[in-house]
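TA notes. Do not distribute before section.
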Amino acid sequence: MKSKKNSKFWLTLVIFSLVGQIAWVVENMYFNVFIYKMFNASAKDISMMVALSAISATLTTIFIGALSDKLGKRKIFMSLGYILWGISILSFALIRKDIISNVFGAAVNSATVGVNLVIIMDCVMTFFGSTANDACYNAWLTDSTDSTNRGKAEGINSMMPLIAILAVFGGFMGFDLDKSSSWTWIYIIIGAVVLLIGVVGFFIIDEANVKTEDDLSYFKTILYGFRPSVIKKEKKLYFTLIAFVIFNISIQVFMPYLIIYYEKTLGMANYVLIMAPAIILAAVFTALFSKQYDKRGFDVVFIPLALITLGYIMLFLFPFVIKTEGVFNTILVFVGSCLMLSGFLSGMAIFGAKVRDETPLNMAGRFQGLRIVGQVLIPGVVGPFIGAQVLKNAEMIVNSDGTESFLPNNNIFLVALIVMLVLVCLIVVYKKVFKKESKENKTEEL
């Protein structure tokens, strides 16, 4: 029997997911651009920032997720978390070279201080964001859905990262990102919106019905998902998480450098006009395709993997095949980006739904830490590190102020492709192992 959700649930899902993802887009894609443009950050700086943010997100989700389980509360963490998240984003408006020079003195290297301040404040912002979104919003979504509507809900939820990218791209089009004043307004606007949604949450969120059936201490609740006995009992969940790790490593090899690659390496000042329709098509595809999970299960994952693989191949081969400039180049980049984004978005939906399906009932909070390990921590450390190694000898350009910056190259898509092929092999093994185990269990029952 299919469970129906009321309009209030869908409103909460859309608003909290979309605004949360807009904030994460600013962090995951535009903090890189921010320190690259404002403080001449290197690939190593960007890799370090992504890695430390991933560690912060994971630790926060593990501790706060377990706490929300013990208290049986999600709403207060979501609403208050979004308010503090918004305030932390507002603080980035103060990280400017002129302010740094006034505070620390003209003798200080404002670029170095700026990079360090952004990295530190990124971790602070991530703490509040992961409390509100990674730990408690995601636990609330798991608690509030079941196997009859999880694919649809996860489809909408997984659309939001790219819709957020589209919203941010569109919103940023009117700003000159080479000017510090533009970044000041961006942080003020995004921070205020996130803060406002936190206030709205107190009025629209229906508290999830969380019934903790064990009497574990808080410390034991934190460690619950890391117990060997739990891993053995929930093998499908952990195998899914391993696959999710590899999927996200592939994404993180190129994602921190994607905008810089389009704008600086390919020289596409109008990259927003290419990405926007690609994102819209990917979002529509995901909304329609994700419902197949509710009907056909995890087997549909091979379609997103095929799409993203084709996208990688096109984006890697493009510079070798085409040597001219013009509309044809733009079309090839658009098609490759559209395939890659469609596979990425729909793949996130399928993996997200599978993880929620395999999560034990009333234990969503304590397992959000494991989800974030697979989605953020390991990929956020390993993926950008691999990307930075690939770009170690990348071409350098001299900026107008005499400083140097690196140019990402298409090799990041080749390495991302290799990682994705490893994932395909793993999922084939996954299906064989659990199919064999299922047959053995049925034989034992007989």
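Switch to the second chain here.
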Amino acid sequence: MADFVASEIVKHFDTAAGPLEILDGVSLEMNRGEQLAILGESGSGKSTFLHIAGTLDRPNSGAIRLLDDIVTGLPPDQLPQFRNEKIGFIFQQHHLLPQLSALENVLVPVLAKGAASPESIRRANDLLDSVGLADRTGHRPALLSGGECQRVAVARALINQPLLLLADEPTGSLDEETAAAIGDLLLKMQAENNSILICVTHSRSLAERFEKRLLLKRGKFENIV
């Protein structure tokens, strides 16, 4: 059985005109080391699917399973710890804490469980080195470029060695050259960590670098050759 399974995910929102269907029974299976780009127009439900996969939202019906855990069945009070341990998030905006250094920002998911161990600090430094920021560990976000902040966000997403790595428009706010560099980095780090990577994007150039691509249209997945 696959490491990650989304089964018949349905999501709709109630409006004055009736239910607004966003996801109409979408299903997906992936294993460690695999990578997927999801394309679609604005409002097609790409981010909604990603949020459901990452336990930030719940479907109206259907299920998400990650290894042996039926994620959609976990009690709400267990979800923060589950997310912190099993899932890494990278968003269009880096969401770094301005008062913390690059190193401290990478360690935030670790600090949610208590004080950072020497091993965690070493891993954070190694990750910053891997993303090309070994000389920026003490810099706060205000002293970093947009691309550098996004590199810190990639390192932060990987600090707890998550099985599932979710990226929501990770290059959407970057210039073309920086976006290409972040795309290189994201795929490189995913391969090195043997994670499952699901990325939603408007960028065809980024999506074409992924092994598998899907188009989300009218609430359904369509294969892109």
